[in-house]
Amino acid sequence: MTSQPDNLYAAREPIFPKRVYGTFRNLKWAIMAVTLGIYYLVPWLRWDRGPNLPDQAVLVDLAHRRFYFFWIEIWPHEFYFVAGLLIMAGLGLFLFTSTLGRVWCGYTCPQTVWTDLFILVERWIEGDRNARIRLHRAKWTPRKATLRVLKWTVWTLIGVATGGAWVFYFADAPTLANQFLTLTAPTVAWVTVAILTATTVILGGFMREQVCIYMCPWPRIQGAMMDDSTLTVAYRDWRGEPRGKARDATAGDCVDCNACVAVCPMGIDIRDGQQMECITCALCIDACDDIMGKLGRDRGLIDYLALSDAPAEQAGKKTRPIWAHILRPRTILYSIIWASFGFAMMYALFIRPEIELAVAPIRNPTFVTLSDGSIRNAYEIRLRNKHGEPRQFGIHVAGDLAVRVELEGTPYETITVAPDATHRLRVYLTTPNQSDVAKADETPIRFWIEDLGNGERASATTVFNGKGEP
Amino acid sequence: MDEPRVDELTGRPTMGHEFDGIEELNTPMPRWWLWTFYLTIIWGIGYTIAFPAWPMISGATAGLLGHSTRGEVSADIAAHEASNAALVAELNAADLATFDPLTDLHRYAVARGSSVFRAQCSQCHGAGAAGAVGYPNLLDNDWLWGGTLEDIAHSVRHGIRNETDFDARYSVMPAFGDILEPADIEKLVDFVPTLADADWDSAGGDLFTENCAACHGDQGLGDSSLGAPNLADAIWLYGSDHDSLTATISNARFGVMPAWGQRLNEEDVRAVSAYVHSLGGGE
């Protein structure tokens, strides 16, 4: 006979983080301002690309399959740039985690930034920690209802602005904003805004630390990224323990004031040691430093610490300097790989041609015999013009082969390609019956195109199929 | 089996079971997680009501929303055709004699014609339009009935030697096996492949002028208004070797093609003609 424990499921314990002042809080405010500023304002930046291209600095144009980023324009076949950026983002995360622990989680993760913003709103409307706890415990009164509705309204407005900013990355921002105001925006825009409003309010307002603890994979992955030399937020227990009153001479530095617990947005006690819930936002450092300052004790009871330094410090020996934690073989290796991807992509970006040529020989049939006995091959050619204006191209075959170039549908050897477009056309090469290329089985040839405006060239190799007779 | 107890080290209750001294602590799941699980069940039930789901003896439940993937395809096709309606009207109104190949309308016609060709024409003329013995190659510049866009459209619309269409292309070559002696046929078989550079004073020359020139022309250059092939060029629909030519002259050859005007709509006839015309041989 066995009995089940009472609770297999637990309700969320509400957390009421207290306002804190200090270095890391200021750093977090600054990062919040910069990241939110970038997110909300970038779609409104303009970038003149000429009359035929959009003038939005950052634009994901799904309909025309283009990605514009200031002076860079990415075509679908250049998606490897995006893949490269994702690889760099991944490696960057490895680098920062092995150096500074979950610094991404604590400072720049959108979940952290928006939660911070939502807590700020909550504090403005409902007051600081103690007032919020009282309000939480109070019965429903008109005042409580007013405050809650006001808070939820502001949250929803932030959510709408967040979802609204997102869709501006996918369309011309002023046009779409005007469509929203006149209620003529496309359905997909409304639906996207609605979904992102809901996720922003739910994740930033109500789920908060639950997202980090239960929904995000990163807390599980970070263990593999961190090591003993990683700087992370920790409690100097050898200095703080045993906890006691400030007057008690036998006690350690920790006066058990719980300031570090009160400010924690994850609702944990950092004095219990490193734990999965900790996003290393460092607010407990600020809170503790403040108390230590008031008591006239050294700051740093809670501090950025490396596990490997703890024994040395306890023994009163000299610890490794900060730079030795930052510059380690592991972090240097990550930096090198990260930078190589960056340099390779920059190189690829600089040598990227503005005109491109792709040639596919038509193999069904490999050649056609014309009425005078001459041999003709057909090719499907794609001309890519990445310029913002139409360009005229001449199409030629390199070398001194006895072949005549003809373009389908025109008696000329030039073709005009629309701005920012790919032009597909059939091209014929014809050679007299008894020429070398007609008799050979296969002759390598090279097509080249020339931009008649500025002489820019591109080429592509292919083959000419002959009769294969001796 | 042990009763649940509180673990001394962590202060957490255990689950009440133990294997080789290892006990499991009770770390409760968040309750919202449980609600999410129930929500997915409710969603799942609602989904099977809204969409086709439950298999029956014949077919399946239709779902309240009336959704079907087949219907989605039909709607997509209808939307596609509606969006092309203006181009189709323009194509049907276009003058084939002056159809500019560098226009968007022409590109549309070729793209549309390409799919018509694959569905309707490739069985005889080949997917690459290179033809086969008896089925003309549509890539070269040799045309039995003319290679302008209008000529091609006429051949497609009315077909070749079919009796269902009054305007079908119709040419008849006599079976010379019934008319000439085998020895004379032999002389013609020797003479015809040399037409480009012929000795008109030979016996074969006389025979050609007497029997063949009426349709194929004095120089054997053919006549596309009669459907008489050019015999002086490098292209032979039925082969130019001795046996093939003997069979052709003795028995004559009669290729046939359906009148596609009876099976395809006007825009598809025009589109497939534009496609064939754009394959390199169009005049």
Task: Quickly give the CATH architecture of the domain at 94-161 and 262-277 in chain B.
Answer: Orthogonal Bundle
User: So how many helices of chain B?
Assistant: 9
Mean pLDDT, all residues of chain B = 92
Discrete helix count of chain A:
17
Helicity range of the residues of chain A? 40-55%
Q: Give the biggest beta sheet of chain B.
A: 2 strands, antiparallel
Q: What structural class should be given to the helix and strand makeup of chain B?
A: mainly alpha
Structural write-up:
The complex is a heterodimer of chains A (470) and B (283). With 470 residues, chain A is an alpha+beta fold. Helix content of chain A is 43%, strand content 19%. Chain A has helices spanning 23-41, 80-100, 103-108, 110-126, 129-137, 142-168, 173-181, 187-207, 209-215, 218-225, 237-240, 259-263, 283-295, 310-314, 322-326, 329-350, 436-439, and strands at 9-10, 58-61, 66-69, 72-74, 231-235, 302-306, 355-361, 368-369, 375-385, 391-397, 404-407, 414-417, 421-431, 442-451, 457-465. In chain A, helix 4 crosses helix 8. Chain A is elongated and about 110 Å long. The N and C termini of chain A lie far apart (94 Å). The model of chain A has no long low-confidence stretch (mean pLDDT 92). In chain B, strand 1 and strand 2 form a beta hairpin. Chain B has a two-stranded antiparallel sheet with strand order 1-2. Chain B is mainly α. In chain B, helix 5 packs across helix 8 (242-251). The interface between A and B is medium-sized, with 33 and 35 residues.
